[in-house]
Amino acid sequence: MPENRTRRLTHGAMMVAIFTVLLAVSTYIPLTSILITWVLPLPIAWYSAKYNMSSSVAVTIAGIMLSFIVGGGFLALPVAFMYAVIGLVLGTMLRLKKNKATIFLATSGAILATFAIVYFAFVKILNINIIQQTLDLSMQSFDTSRKMMEASNVPADQLASFEKQLELMEKTATYLVPSLLVFAVLGIAFIILAVNLPLLKRLKLEVPKFKPFRYMQLPRSILWYYFIVLIISLFVRPEEGTYLYVAILNLSSILTMLLALQGLSLIHFFILEKGMPKGVVVIATIIALPFLQFVSLIGLVDLGFNIRGFITGETKK
């Protein structure tokens, strides 16, 4: 027992030290943060996957406190808090041997929860609204585009049309903040898992295997959600700016993006199933990106009619 306790304390101290050093390097050498940020959860995740919850929470708190003291003060505290908690959740899911979907959802939830806490702390304590500042930067870019058009002496009708497009883009950007936040959270969770799970496997931890992207299959219930949102959009037509309008707009964006991922995975599936070179997959993905609306229709058809079954000749009876 004393030996196990000593080993637990030694490993905890090592992981806290590594976490603090990584955070300090990313804080004081900004260019390194592009790479180091994605492996910040690794030390806490490794420890949390090997030891019980109480020890893991203690190491997480110690990592946050030490990072505040020697890793960059208040500048490093939000980052330390977010990535230490993400590491704790990821490691705990691995220790409990949860499946890949649960790990992804738990990691996404940890990212969203910690971001929400940091966001409200910034608003209440420092009076800094991160989301509003991001929107303001977008509006400034729109204003710059507007001024460039005015300076180029374009015809009045073209300028008026351009003004309407910019106004629509400004409103849409404001309305779509919730869905953009969801996309960002899911994207960050995916990258963190893609980077850290292979590293944790190399560190002799048992990690679940994620199927290749071409086998991605959304629940068929997504079809019902999509059609319900579509019917409300066509027949109810909520007034612009209302809560229902914003909710429908965000749900529509999220569902369209999910269906686009389904369609893109089908394209990957078809190319690889037919034995084409992997380079064709890259080219097809690049070509598909500007046509996500069309790709989402492909995903919709795939969910409804099992196109993969037709490709492999194994359709459902």
TrEMBL record:
Keywords for the protein's UniProt record, in alphabetical order: Membrane, Transmembrane, Transmembrane helix
InterPro entries found in the cross-reference section: DUF2232
Keyword Transmembrane helix attached: yes
Keyword Membrane: yes
Superkingdom of this protein's organism: Bacteria
Segments crossing the lipid bilayer: 12-40, 60-90, 102-122, 175-200, 221-237, 243-272, 279-301
Stretch forming the signal peptide: none
Record-given protein name: DUF2232 domain-containing protein
